[in-house]
Every structure is written in structure tokens, then in C-alpha cells.
């Protein structure tokens, strides 16, 4: 069975609080390695604990997700995960540096911009997201680790705003001006258009896809256009459950449905997609697989 890396599986989230170990074992038994990205301080610490418990199989990414910068209530799709509350956290470099430096941490993530309507962002709130994103990028550069970027367009001060245009501007800033290490990363759960995808690729970024691509053809052209050397697969579990498991909680083992879909779209074998996306993750994150 070809190996795969689920570059985005939140096995430390509360949706897995009763059976995370079984979920992880199922993934390991089916040849799936897991990168567990975080959303806030508590989930970052828990991701590191799982990476320590499953060395060489589970890897942690730590970061403060932009939705946690403002208080709001979130209700993920029914069947996938329990609802949760964000509290308006602030990013403090002193708190996060030791986590970023931890040897089991392979990236900073999730970091980025999220303009989801529910947050009812003002211009000032958006500025806070950009400032925080920049601080997390600077921390990633200083520990020489890549970023796992989260980006969702939506509404700012009552007007539609494209988060990818903002993210590309910020990333380009650092790529043109950062020395000696270069900003590297992946746009996770890629949601932008084909023009923006080309810009990410030009900046050396990778694009990663979730179960969304199994039931929405909006990104088919992006996947066909992007070189396989720049693609990655992820579940974003417990969310984004792929066909044929819609309506249930997602888990890392299901990452093969995304590799399958990419293989179908590009006209490649499943094995070729599995092997190459695994190599891509290995190289970007320096995974000792
Ligand atoms: Zn996520």
C-alpha cells in the first residue's frame, strides 16, 4: 500500500477526544503519516504531545489561527465536529517561540487570514489579522521552518474582500526581503482562483487540497494546471469529509480519496500521486520518513 502524508489532520481537536489513539492507529496501519496543525495555544501543546507519543508518524505544527483573534461562536457542519467558541487571543512571541523551536514541531500553522462573515470584521480587526500573520511568519523565518497557511475570503466592514490577494501581497513581501532563510510554505485547503494559484506557485509555495475536491469541481482546473511536484493532500479532519463519508467526522485515513481525485483529474496513477505528494511533504517539512 503506498504511503501518504495527511498534511493537515487535527487529531488533537476535541472531536477526537475519546478516540484519538484509535484514529491515529488506523492511519498508521493504512500507511498514512499525520501533520497535526493547531489553532491556539492549547491545541498547539496537545499537537506536540501527540508528536512525542507517535514519533516518526505524527508531526506537530503550532500557531494561532486568525479566527481565534476575535470572539465568536462557530458551528461546523453537522456530523463533523462539535461547535466551539473563540475568545479574542493575542499573539505573543515570547509564549510561542519555545513551541516553534520544539524539535517535534515541523511548521508554523495554521497562520493566515480569515474573513468569514461570522466574524463581522472591521478594517481594524483585519489589520490585527495581518499583523499577527506577519509576526507568525517572522517567527517561522527565525526558526527556519515553513508555514501552513490558512486563507478564506469573505466580508470586511460590510464589503467583500479577497483574502488570497492580501496573503499573496504579505508573502511576496517576505520572499523578496527575507534573509538568510526564505519563506516557504503551503496554502492549505486551497480556495483561491487559478490566477492566484499561479502566483503562489511562482513564489515557490505548494497547494494542498481537502475532501472539498471530491464534491466540488471549482478547483479542477487549478489541479490540472499545477505541477504534481507542488501538490499536497490533506483531510483537514474532523472537517471537510470527502465522498463517500459525507455527513460523518473526517479522519486522516481518508486522505487517499483526495490523492485518488487528483490522480483522476491529472490522468496519473494513484501510486504516482501518492509517492510524489509524500515526497513533496517530506521535502517541505523535512519529515524523517
Ligand atoms: Zn485546519
Annotate the secondary structure layout.
Elements: E1 4-6, H1 20-29, E2 32-36, H2 41-53, E3 58-62, E4 72-74, E5 84-86, H3 93-101, E6 105-114, H4 123-142, E7 147-152, E8 154-156, E9 159-161, H5 163-177, E10 185-187, H6 194-202, E11 206-209, H7 220-225, E12 231-233, H8 255-266, H9 270-285
Keywords: Hydrolase, Metal-binding
InterPro entries: Metal_Hydrolase (IPR032466), TatD-like (IPR001130), TatD/YcfH-like (IPR015991)
Pfam family, one: TatD_DNase
Total individual domains: 1
Structural class: alpha/beta
The secondary-structure element order is EHEHEEEHEHEEEHEHEHEHH
The hetero molecules present are: zinc ion
Mass-distribution shape: globular
Identify the CATH class. Alpha Beta
Amount of beta strand: 15-25%
Characterize the largest beta sheet: strand count, sense, and whether it forms a barrel.
Answer: 8 strands, parallel
- How far the N terminus sits from the C terminus, by CA atoms, comes to 15 Å
Mean pLDDT: 95
* CATH hierarchy: architecture: Alpha-Beta Barrel
The portion of residues assigned to helices is: 25-40%
Low-confidence sequence ranges: none
Strands side by side in the biggest sheet:
1-2-3-6-7-10-11-12
Q: What's the alpha carbon Rg, rounded to whole Å?
A: 17 Å
Protein name: Hydrolase TatD
InterPro entries: Metal_Hydrolase, TatD-like, TatD/YcfH-like
Pfam families: TatD_DNase
Keywords: Hydrolase, Metal-binding
Amino acid at each position: 500500500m503506498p504511503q501518504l502524508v495527511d498534511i493537515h489532520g487535527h487529531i488533537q481537536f476535541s472531536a477526537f477526544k475519546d478516540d484519538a489513539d484509535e484514529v491515529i492507529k488506523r492511519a498508521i496501519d493504512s500507511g498514512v503519516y499525520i501533520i497535526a496543525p493547531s489553532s491556539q495555544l492549547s491545541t498547539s501543546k496537545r499537537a506536540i504531545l501527540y508528536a512525542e507519543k507517535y514519533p516518526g508518524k505524527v508531526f506537530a505544527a503550532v500557531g494561532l489561527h486568525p479566527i481565534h483573534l476575535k470572539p465568536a461562536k462557530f458551528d461546523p457542519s453537522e456530523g463533523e465536529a462539535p461547535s466551539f467558541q473563540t475568545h479574542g487571543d493575542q499573539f505573543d512571541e515570547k509564549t510561542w517561540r519555545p513551541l516553534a523551536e520544539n524539535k517535534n514541531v515541523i511548521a508554523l500553522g495554521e497562520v493566515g487570514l480569515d474573513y468569514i462573515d461570522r466574524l463581522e470584521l472591521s478594517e481594524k480587526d483585519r489589520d490585527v489579522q495581518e499583523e499577527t500573520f506577519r509576526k507568525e511568519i517572522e517567527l517561522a523565518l527565525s526558526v527556519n521552518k515553513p508555514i501552513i497557511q490558512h486563507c478564506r475570503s469573505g466580508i470586511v466592514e460590510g464589503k467583500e474582500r479577497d483574502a488570497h490577494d492580501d496573503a499573496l501581497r504579505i508573502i511576496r513581501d517576505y520572499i523578496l526581503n527575507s534573509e538568510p532563510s526564505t519563506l516557504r510554505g503551503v496554502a492549505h485547503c486551497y480556495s483561491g482562483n487559478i490566477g492566484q494559484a499561479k502566483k503562489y506557485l511562482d513564489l515557490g509555495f505548494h497547494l494542498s487540497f481537502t475532501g472539498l475536491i471530491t464534491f466540488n469541481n471549482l478547483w479542477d482546473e487549478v489541479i490540472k494546471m499545477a505541477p504534481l511536484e507542488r501538490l499536497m493532500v490533506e483531510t483537514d479532519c474532523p472537517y471537510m469529509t470527502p465522498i463517500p463519508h459525507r455527513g460523518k467526522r473526517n479522519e486522516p485515513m481518508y486522505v487517499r480519496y483526495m490523492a485518488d481525485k487528483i490522480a483522476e483529474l491529472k490522468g496519473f496513477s494513484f501510486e504516482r500521486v501518492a509517492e510524489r505528494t509524500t515526497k513533496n511533504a517530506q521535502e517541505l517539512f523535512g519529515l524523517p520518513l
